Amino acid sequence: MTAESRPLRYFVAVAEERSFTRAAARLGIAGPALSRAIRNLETELGVRLFERSTRVVELTEPGTVLLTHARPALEALDAAARRAVRASAPHRSLLLAVKADNDGGLLEDILAATAAEPDAEPVAVRLCSWREHTQLLRAGEADAALMFEPYDPAGIDADVVAVEPRVVALPAGHALAGASRVRLADLGLAPEDLGERAERDIGALGVRDLAQLLALVGLGTTTTVLPRSVAARYPREAVVYVPLEDCPPAALVIAWPERSRSRGVAALVRAAAAVAESRGMSADVEAPQRIPGR
After folding, report:
1. 3 state SS of 198
2. Which residues fall within 8 angstroms of residue 23, CB to CB, at 6 or more apart?
3. 171 near 219, Cβ under 8 Å?
4. How many Å apart are CA 220 and CA 229, to the nearest integer?
5. Which of 41, 47, 215, 229 is the residue whose CA sits 20 to 30 A from 157?
6. Residue 79 is part of which domain span?
7. What count of other Cβ atoms lies within 10 Å of the Cβ of residue 157?
């Protein structure tokens, strides 16, 4: 914690805890010292940040505005510090965040193609869970991420590098299991039901991962929609994967922290696009791609 950021961190702790006592315990400092620091911050800013009473601490309107901006500012500062520490490592590697089996089947080729790029740096894979990719990028714990849309775009730049069809996972005994392809309406689905469908299914059914979800599909409990490359990695005798005729394709993106100027990340992005194109999976995008450092 730098001296310059300490008052903001104290303020955020009080705002989140709604209590000076709880915030002091969380921060590991004495209550009077915390109160004094907040008063000094209010004096410096010329605004009252909290309405204090014997029972509760509430944010004022200026306090609410400051909290909105303080959190991302502190997160960015922490991320910058982590990146600086990682940059000083003697054997530094770019960290690429990927969820297992959610790489469009391209990861190995992307790593090989990246190594051949002029500005390439060694790349290490950081396995992560759904929705964790962008958190790692914003926290400075990953340099790039390979993931399917949708994702939280705050503080992130990304390019679609590949698109692929989606399939529906059906129990082998399902009435549509023998069809060559099905329509969304046949399944009672609409395009807006897709995107995070498998993730939502996992949460709703109380299972931990895709393997367990597909076990329930095989038992006839549910169905789910997946990118074709993901389905290819999970063959199941009790599960049939049927192409969806009128379904928007799944979009695989490579993402990096906003304002990144890393030549190594730029090499990784170029390699990912080249591999997708060589596989016939490249996105049909008219606008020029955003490349870090450009």
Report:
1. helix
2. 10, 13, 14, 16, 17, 34
3. yes
4. 22
5. 229
6. 6-87
7. 19
| Side-chain half-sphere exposure of 197, counting CA atoms within 13 A | 21
Structure token digits, residue 104? 């469009």
How many domains would you assign to the chain? Answer: 3
Confidence of residue 59 (pLDDT cuts 50, 70, 90): very high
- Nearest residue to 173 (alpha-carbon basis) of 209, 211, 223, 212: 223
* Residue 157: CATH number of its domain: 3.40.190.10
Sheet containing 144-148: give its strands across.
123-128, 94-99, 144-148, 250-257, 156-164
The verdict on residue 127 lying in a domain is yes
The HSE-up count of residue 27 (CA atoms within 13 Å, CB side) is 27
Residue 286 is assigned to a structural domain of this protein:
no
CA pair distance 214, 196, nearest whole angstrom: 16
Domain match, 16 and 77 both: yes
Residues 153 and 197 in one domain: no
Residues 122 and 221 grouped into a single domain: no
Q: What is the 3-state secondary structure (H, E, C) of 126-179?
A: EEECCCHHHHHHHCCCCCEEEEECCCCCCCEEEEEEEEECEEEEEECCCCCCCC
* Residues 6+ away with beta carbon under 8 Å from 202: 208, 209, 210, 212, 213
Structure tokens at 37: 């620091």
Query: Is position 263 within any domain?
Result: yes
pTM of the model: 0.68
Of 64, 87, 110, the residue at which a domain comes to its end is 87
Q: Which single residue is written with the structure tokens 């200026």?
A: 62
Q: Is 28 domain-assigned?
A: yes
The model's pLDDT over 158-192, given as tens digits with 9 standing for 90+, comes to 999 999 999 999 999 999 999 999 999 998 888 87
